[in-house]
Structure formats: structure tokens, C-alpha cells
Amino acid sequence: MHEVAAGQVPVEGGLAEVEVLLGGVDDVLADLSPERRELFALRVERWWPDLRAGLAAVHDPGTAAVLEQRLLRAAATAYAEREPELHRLDQARTLRPDWFQEPGMLGYAAYTERYAGTLAGVHGRLDHLRELGVTYLHLMPVLQPREGDSDGGYAVADYRAVRSDLGDVEDLRELARALRAQGTSLVLDLVLNHVAREHEWARRAREGDPRYRAYFHVHPDREQPDAYERTLPEVFPDFAPGNFTWDDELDGWVWTTFNSFQWDVDWSNPDVLVEYAEVVLFLANLGVEVLRLDAIAFIWKRLGTDCQNQPEVHSLTQVLRALARVACPAVLLKAEAIVSPHQLVQYLGQGEHHGRVSDLAYHNTLMVQFWSMVASQDVRLAAQALGALPAAPSSAAWITYVRCHDDIGWAITDEDAAAVGLDGYQHRSFLSDWFSGAFGGSPARGLVFQENPATGDRRISGSAAALTGLVAAQDDGAGPGDPRVDAAVARVLLGHALVMGWGGVPVLWMGDELGLRGDDAWASEPGHESDNRWAHRPWMDEAALGARHDGTTVPGRLFAGVRHLAGVRASLPHLHASVASEVLEVHDPGVLAVLRRHPVGDLLALYNATQDWRSYPGWRLEELGLGGAHDALTGAPVHRGDDGNVWLAPWSAAWLRMP
Ligand code: GLC
């Protein structure tokens, strides 16, 4: 009998039952060497219980049993077809299961056409990535989208084809290979909550094929949609209000959480699960190493709820995770769940799902709190909100980031705000005013995204340069040495220090490492006019990129600064993602203190989120056993004032550890 953790459904007869299971896919595995067949069997024995438990939580036993066979066949087929080089990667990763938690990990995210024109063009950017130390490249949607507005490619028309203006599937495979050769993992989106209205499944549904109609949530009249709408929020209240769209050809209302052309698929349909399982395996065999599960929070619908974060979401993720572990264990799943702080950590595996779902998830709370502390020059809310979050499981990692290609929503709970004497609504309102530049004295130049009159909610678009005041200073004619420019540069670097010092995989969003202002002409691109997220999705500025080694320029200062942070980070074992970040008590309301206790020694990170010199008490440093600490960022002993305290320059960071 094998020992089984709670929540697992064992492969009851152990190896004997695995043999029976594998008997069903003999034809697929027949040509493999005995060693390769044995390895597959071992993986099935190890991971099938996770898959079973996931299925059992969602489907009745009969459906689950059939699904299991179909998924096993898909996994065996992909395994048999996987290239030797990828099998080798699977083995290497199995020997180094914490590869993505190591402090040397650094991500970069870009739209291919904006970064390099085409997939082939990305080869010409490998130097840029290498200089930064990038080990993870997220190219935003590259699979064939619908024509016209496709929500930046997040309306996929074909999961097995590449956007024709970017190249083809072979270019993708080639790029994955080239990246892998320099130790960089290719990360792609797996948009699994919806497909484009033009996807074959949707087309066949519109043609009246009942099999495909059942892939979607279609209602003949408003009764059910109205019932759901009572508790559903709106993602794009401005340009895509409501969650259902009438379609004449379907002769029904189809669920469309995002845009009207993005049809939500029905994950309670077992065929849908098998379809996506096959897409996962297809992308894995192209050499994709991380799949970003786009909008994963939304895939399960339940009447009377907001239809996000339902328990089935985690069970289904567990099925996909187990499947990948059997067929292509080098592949990781990353949850894109931009949800409230207490829901967030579920995506890294809590309770019965611990260690069995996504390995990575976006640390939305850290991102939001960075901007909040910079605007208010007060870290108390950040300390409260970050301190209240449960630690990520030690086998997982956060994706940390200063901002991304999407808008920033103020995911700050009323409870956290109240705990530090703030009114949640007013603080969120202040942040929108501040970052749109409406608040007196604010140097930020962001844009309001999706103002929702019903809730008062206003999200914000903007590049790091726009949100930190760099754009405003430059528009005022401020030159490189102007104090407003200095302050903005310092704020950009402070944000990057925070996300690099947190532990996890920090991801840079294209252009922020050079201070690109964004795309002022965003609205002139057809289909983009109502979606100002395009304002912070700029085209690469060749002049700025060319100036990256010139320390007298803003791009050069930022590039050097970001590179320095990444280099220091890579040398600090304390930043391994398995170690938790502990937010310490606040002494000066402008200074955030984060401790990481690692067996090699402790690391204390300090962040001054104000325009003044601020201090951290010397006695506290002694108490922590860090009296003689050096700042890893300067490489020098920590600077203590006459009062014995550690003094931090405006908008600066220090990472303290004993030499
Ligand atoms: C994710 C993407 C976003 C897109 C949405 C719908 O949140 O990041 O850009 O609009 O999913 O696919």
C-alpha cells in the first residue's frame, strides 16, 4: 500500500493498477524503449492520484472514469512524440525541482510585434535579454487571434497556429530552442476561459452543431442571464457592459465575461477539458515551458456567486498540472488570477490542493501596495495588507511585478484599510486621482480605465514612467539632471527593488527598464480606441534601447539600475522563493521593512517610500543580529547616522545582510 496524503485518490493497486491503466495505451507506448516506458509508468504512479482527485471533485464517477482514459491517452501520445531534447529538459528539471524559485530567475514580458517585429526578430533581442539576465520570456498572445480587435490576442481563433504576421509554428519552436540554449524559458498564454467568436468551436456552435453548442454557456432567453447578473461584477463595464451577448446565429445569449467577441467556454463539459488538455500538451511539445493560465479565476460558474475563484477552478487546475507532470514535467503552470488578497494564495495551492496546482501566480497585492505606498508616502497599509497575507507554499513562487500590460485595479480591502485608520473607498479613490494626475501636486500621468459609476471604481493605465512622474517631468522639459527626473528614476528603481527583493520571479514589463513613456498614439490603432491599456503597451524605442549603455541618459540610468538589482539579487540565496517574506512592524511610517530568514542568514530589506531621508532604528538592527550588516546593493557596510540609526535616501532601498 502506498502512503497517500489527504485529498488524494490513490491508484489503489499501486504498480499493478498502473500496469492495467497503461495497458489501455499500449499501442501508443509500444515503440518506446523499455526505459522510456518505465519512466512514463513511474510518473503515472506518482501523479495519477492528483489527476483522479481533481476529476472526482468535478465529475460523477462514470464521467471521471471515461475522462481519465481519454486524458491518459492524450498524455501518452504527447509523451511518445516529445523531442529528445525536451525529455532531457524534463529530467533536468525533475532533478532541480526548485529551478524557478532560484534568485537568478528574472522575467521579461512583451508583445512580440512591439518588442521585435516577429518571432524571428526576437533572436535579434537575445543580447538585450542576456544583458539584463532574463531567464524567462513571456511573449504575450502569439497564437492566431480573430481578425480585427482581438483584445491584444486574448481572443484566440486557433490554438494550434501562430499569428501569421509574427511567423509560424516552426518559428515558435525555433525560438523556444534558441531561448532554451541560453537558459531562458519561453512563457506563453493559455487563454482558457474563452475563445474568439471566430474559433472553430464557436463557428460550429453557430452552425447549430449541438456538440459545440455545449462547449459554451448559451441561454435561449434572459431568465438565466438575469439570474446570474444579479451577483456578477463587470470586467469591462465601459466598453463591454454585462456578461452575456445576444448572438443571432446562435439564437441565444452566450456568456461573455470580457468582450462580446470572447465567448466563455463551459468547463463543466468533459470535452472542453480534454480539448484544453491537448492544447497544453501541444504547446509543451513546441518547447513552451510556462503556461500562463489567463483569467483562470473565471472558468467555473455558479449561480448566486460572482463566478470567480470557485473550488472547481482549483480541481481543474490540478488535473492539468498532474497531466503535465506525467507528459512534460519541465512545464509549469502560472495562474493569472487578479483577485482579492485573501483569494490570491489559493492559486498557489492551499488545503488539499497544496503542491498540486499552479507553481506561479501573480502577486497582485504587492504591485498594488507599491503604488499605494508611493502615492501616500506611507507604508502602513502595505505593511498591514502584505503582512496579513498567508505565506506562499514553500514549493511555489510569486510572480512579482511593478506593473503589467493590464490596468491596475485597487485591490485593497476595506478591512486592511480600516486596520490602519483609512477608509477603503476613499483611499482607492485617492489612488485613482493620484495616478491619473487629478490630485493636486501629483506628477503621475496615468489614464482612468473602466470608470464604473455603479461602484465608483476607477482603474488606472500607465507605464512605470507615466505613473512615477518621469513623463510629466520630461514633458515639462526637465533634463536628465533635473531633480524631478531623479526622483522619478528613483521611484522606478524603488519599485523594481521591492519586487526583486520579495522572492519569486520578478517580471519586467517591456520598456520600464528604459523608462519608455508608453504609446501616445495608442488610440489611433483601429480597434484600440476605447481601450487605453494600449497607452502602456509601447513599441520598442530603438533610440532608447541604443542608449542603454550610456549612463548620462535616463534609459541608461534605468537600465544600469535594473541590471544591478537583478545581478545582486541573483547572488543572494536569501531570495530563493521557498523562503517567506516577513513584513516587520513599522517604526517610521515611510519605511517598509521585510525580513527573510534563510538558513544562510537573514536578509533585511528596507524601502523608503518617501521624498525625505528616513531612518530605521539601529537598536532594532542589533536585535535582529544585523548590527554589522552590509548593504548588498552598495556592497558597503550599512550607513549609520550619528544617532546609530540606518538612514535611507529618498525613494531608496537597502538589502542588509551580514557579510
Ligand atoms: C487577462 C489578460 C487581459 C485580457 C483578459 C481577457 O486578464 O491579461 O489582457 O483582457 O485576460 O482575456
Question: Are any ligands bound, and if so which?
Answer: alpha-D-glucopyranose
- Tally of helical runs: 25
CATH architecture of the largest domain: Alpha-Beta Barrel
CA-CA gap between termini: 50 Å
CATH superfamily of the largest domain: Glycosidases
Number of domains: 3
CATH topology of the largest domain: TIM Barrel
- Strand arrangement within the widest β-sheet reads 1-2-5-11-12-13-14-17
Number of strands: 25
Q: What general outline do the C-alpha atoms trace?
A: globular
Name the structural class: alpha/beta
Give the structure's gist in a few sentences:
The chain has 659 residues and is of the alpha/beta class. It is built from 25 helices and 25 strands. An eight-stranded parallel β-barrel has the order 1-2-5-11-12-13-14-17, surrounded by four helices. It has a six-stranded antiparallel beta sheet with strand order 18-19-20-25-22-23.
